[in-house]
Amino acid sequence: MVRRAGRSRFRRQKGAIETLYTAPPADSVVVCLDEMGPESAKSHRGKRLLRPPADAAAPAPRATQEIDYGRRGGGYLFGAFRPASGDALTAPYARRTTASFVDFLEQVEAWLPAEADRVYAILDNLSTHRAPDVLLFSLAHPRWEFVFQPVYAAWLNLIEPWWKTLRSLALKGRRFATWEQICDAVREATAYWNAHKHPFVWGRRRRHRPRRKPGIALGTDVRPT
Fold first, then answer.
1. Using 50, 70 and 90 to split pLDDT, how confident is the model at 190?
2. Domains in the chain, CATH or no CATH each
């Protein structure tokens, strides 16, 4: 009985979020909120082309990276993402507190179009997202409605795949000496994304993952018997 009740509650919450993505109410805006971090000033792994050895019998070279513990400052990156248009907003904070989240909500409120009658904010169940100060913010801004995703269902928040894009644009393969350098890199990467943005469509396959055809594939060194 308990498991069935939990599953039905999950289906209702999942269905409500999917409906906001696919068929949002008229004159409304759907925005995904989340925090990334903690991020520290350190070396972030990337990709580098390695030339094969001249001797075919020699072992293939391996990429190496210096160990970097990154104890040069850090913080959190707060983000807001609109899947329908692809617009993104980021802001760095030293700590992930209720005061930081409410301050970021004020920035998002000024960033969103004023003509929208309703704002649906999709976010997780972090304690700072349910604090009394957040309730006071919603009372001061009646058009806001917070839609909390189910527990262990981060994949329902479309800002999660966008975080991967931001990491690739701002952090991947780079070394940062200070937290301020990370903030500048994220700011530039966000501006670049907004200049080349595209919407995120719920349920669409990623372009770089081709659809697999049914059947059994035989390798070159496998012979049927």
1. very high
2. 29-40+72-195 (3.30.420.10)
